[in-house]
Write a structure and sequence with these properties.
The chain has 738 residues and is α/β, with parallel strands linked by helices. The chain contains 18 helices and 20 strands. Strand 3 and strand 4 form a beta hairpin.
């Protein structure tokens, strides 16, 4: 014992207690060693544990505690000093580590206690996120339904299809028991049940628009829950139902619906509304959710937009159909007008030919009779017949000219002529008539008035004859003065005529003519009527002056064609009047100014008054007209041969014949072509002259196109035939239509 370095226990060993302590220390040590292993395992599995270094300290503390219990197993019996040193070292280390761990837990435990608070916060956050996700899913679902409904609604522009599709899609999407649409009536005082989902109610049922529930819905921008017993909610029978489903109503703005003429709508309402009513299934606990109400509101707005588009389309379709109907009517009217114009032109052409043919015979034979030896009484009668015939021919020309002026087919025949000769010729024609009435006709031509001008000589002479003739016709005594001068453009700008715009130029000038008479005058208020066709003022009409009321109307149109203006001034009855007109005439080219292209008609070479032995042929299918023309030629000394057809003319004609007069209605165009073929050389071919009964330009152009040498308008007199033959023999062509 003395040589053993052993330490005895303090108390005597109790075998049983020793065993229990030994076993307990073993299991305590085992537990202490297993706990750190478990902590190390789970810490390695966890990637987010924030206190790894604390666990290291806590694990060291547990391991050291286990080590003390394990070493303590050798202290229950005799043990060496080494065991005591190891035991002491282990306890010292355990004390150090346990104190350090205890100090660290002072800082760690509050954090660990706050984990619960954080857990509650995270749970609340998670719940809030769940609600937000649910709301987002609801919004997405609502948006999907809205897009689907919008697509279905916008897939058509038919108003009825839009409304029916809306009810069907809303009923399917929201699982509705019933859905209906109330539309305002034409009076605006009632709402009419127009569409329902299941069509169990009689469509056409109406309710007053001033019901409180309707006003409540109309004044709100949102869908509103209404009582199932409301008149607008009684869409289905509630028999056998314990609890009706919830009902909501929403207004549908009628942005533009022209089919409903709401005249009596309340003045305070700036918009018109329809009403959409939606009912959930009966006998169910289902209620309207916010997202469902939002869906209903959005759909109502989409329906309003679709209805506005449909209404605009309906109006455009109606406008298009109306435009088509108007175009059809206009086209029909145009065709009828064209048919009427063609019928009128055909009628005028036929009447022109049929009237000029006998007129030709009357004037020709009367002029022949006038040159025979007659008694004074017989000569007076012949002159009366001839004047009346000429007047009738003038009236025919006036009617035809007016017709062509109105349809725009009349064109000016522009050429160079002697302006002074035109005035002198008119003066010579009017002077005999004026001398009978003892009227003095004075002609005053300004010194600067050009001699040769470019314009329509025939129309200018017609205007002068009408205006001066009226002055002579309506004057019983006194004098008539005709003044012609060049008007300054600056002085013409004061005229208030809306269709007269004089423009200065070196190529043209404006001729102004004033005709003053001392006649009975005109009431100023009657002056505008003078230029209306077939109209005469009462004082003029009561006089035995004759006339058709066409002269001034035609003159006005001729003046307009010449880019001029015509007007009449009078201070009243018994004070005479002044007729003035302005026309635009051109200056001839300088090469033609000194050398006119031809002698004026008033100065034509009529030295040869008879044409003895001149062989001519007259082709006309009308026997009376043929005889009259032959009589004129025979009277002038010609050797005239008459034929009635083109074939007969071709058989008779020879180089000895100088002139062939042919009526164009008797195959005249074909005959002219065949004459050119028969006589290849021009000096061997007789001159070809067309006898026409129409004044249209196309006939004259056709005559020139087939190679005719001249055109003569029926009727003819001895003087006119003499002038024609003289010009033909001198120039071998008629320089203008006779």
């Amino acid at each position: 014992m003395e040589s053993c370095n052993c330490i005895e226990p303090q108390w005597p060993a109790d075998e049983l207690l020793m065993k229990y302590q030994y076993i307990s220390d073993f299991f305590i040590a085992l537990a202490y060693f297993s706990i750190p292993l478990e902590i190390i395992y789970f810490v390695k599995k966890s990637a987010v544990f924030p206190y790894r270094w604390v666990l290291v300290q806590f694990g060291a503390f547990i391991v050291l505690c286990g080590a003390t219990h394990l070493i303590n197993l050798w202290t229950f019996t005799m043990h060496s000093r080494t065991v005591a040193v190891v035991m002491t070292t282990a306890k010292v280390l355990t004390a150090v580590v346990s104190c350090a761990t205890a100090l660290m837990l002072v800082h760690i435990i509050p954090d660990l206690l706050s984990v619960k608070t954080r857990e509650l916060f995270l749970k609340n956050k998670a719940a809030e996120l769940d609600r937000e996700m649910g709301l987002i899913r609801t919004q997405e679902e609502t948006g999907r339904h809205v897009r689907m409904l919008t697509h279905e609604i916008r897939s058509t522009l038919d108003r009825r299809t839009i409304l029916k599709t809306t009810l069907v899609e809303l009923g399917r999407t929201l699982a509705l028991e019933e859905c209906a649409l109330w539309m305002p009536t034409r009076t605006g005082l009632e709402l009419e049940l127009s569409y329902t989902l299941h069509q169990q109610n009689p469509v056409g049922y109406t309710v007053p628009i001033h019901l409180p529930v309707i006003n409540q819905v109309f004044t709100s921008n949102h869908a509103i829950k209404i009582s199932p017993n409301s008149p607008i909610a009684r869409l289905r029978s509630l028999a056998g139902k314990y609890m009706p489903g919830e009902v909501v109503a929403v207004r549908v703005p009628l942005l533009h619906i022209s089919n409903f003429q709401i005249n009596d709508w309340p003045e305070l309402s700036v918009k018109r509304y329809a009403l959409m009513v939606l009912m959930l299934p009966s006998d169910s606990a289902r209620q309207w959710h916010v997202h469902e109400l939002e869906l209903v509101e959005v759909v109502a707005d989409q329906v309003a937009v679709a209805l506005s588009h449909a209404a605009i389309l309906e109006e455009s379709m109606r406008a298009r159909n109306l435009l088509i109907e108007q175009n059809v009517a206009l086209d029909l009217a145009r065709r009828e007008a064209e048919t009427a114009i063609r019928a009128r032109n055909d009628f005028l052409a036929v009447m022109n030919h049929e009237m000029r043919t006998p007129m030709h015979a009357i004037i020709a034979l009367s002029s022949l009779l006038q040159e025979t030896e007659l008694t004074a009484e017989q000569r007076l009668m012949v002159e009366t017949i001839l004047k009346s015939s000429n007047l009738l021919a003038t009236l025919i020309n006036d009617v035809l000219d007016l017709s062509r002026l109105e349809d725009g087919s009349l064109q000016l025949d522009i050429g160079t002529f002697n302006l002074h000769s035109v005035f002198r010729e008119v003066h010579n024609l009017i002077k005999p008539v004026a001398s009978v009435k003892k009227l003095m006709v004075m002609l005053n031509l300004a010194p600067d008035l050009p001699v040769y001008v470019v314009g329509d000589e025939k129309r200018l002479m017609q205007i002068l004859l009408n205006v001066v003739g009226n002055a002579v016709k309506f004057s019983k005594e006194g004098s008539i003065s005709v003044a012609a001068f060049v008007a300054k453009v600056e002085s013409l700008r004061d005229f208030r005529a809306p269709d007269f715009f004089p423009m200065p130029s070196d190529c043209h000038f404006y001729l102004r003519v004033q005709v003053k008479d001392s006649g009975s005058g005109i009431n100023p208020q009657d002056i505008p009527k003078l230029f209306t066709k077939f109209t005469q003022t009462q004082p003029l009409a009561t006089r035995n002056s004759g006339g058709s009321g066409l002269g001034l109307a035609i003159c006005k149109r001729f003046v307009n064609l010449m880019e001029g203006h015509i007007w009449i001034e009078s201070e009243g009855l018994g004070k005479g009047c002044t007729a003035s007109f302005i026309v635009k005439l051109g200056f001839p080219e300088r090469s033609n100014e000194s050398k006119p292209p031809f002698a004026p008609k008033g100065q034509a070479n009529h030295a040869q008054t008879n044409f003895p032995g001149l062989k001519v042929i007259v082709m006309d299918e009308n026997g009376v007209s043929r005889t009259a023309t032959k009589g004129l030629l025979v009277h002038l000394g010609c050797d005239a041969t008459t034929v009635s057809s083109s074939d007969e003319c071709l058989r008779v004609v020879s180089q000895e014949h100088r002139v062939v007069f042919m009526d164009v209605n008797t195959n005249g165009y074909e005959l002219a072509v065949r004459l050119h073929e028969k006589f290849a050389k021009r000096h061997e071919r007789p001159l070809i002259v067309a006898l026409i009964s129409t004044t249209d330009k196309a006939t004259k152009e056709n005559c020139m196109r087939v190679g005719m040498d001249g055109v003569i308008l029926k009727p003819l007199s001895v003087d006119k035939m003499r002038s024609v033959l003289s010009e033909l023999l001198e120039h071998r062509v008629l320089l203008g239509p006779m």
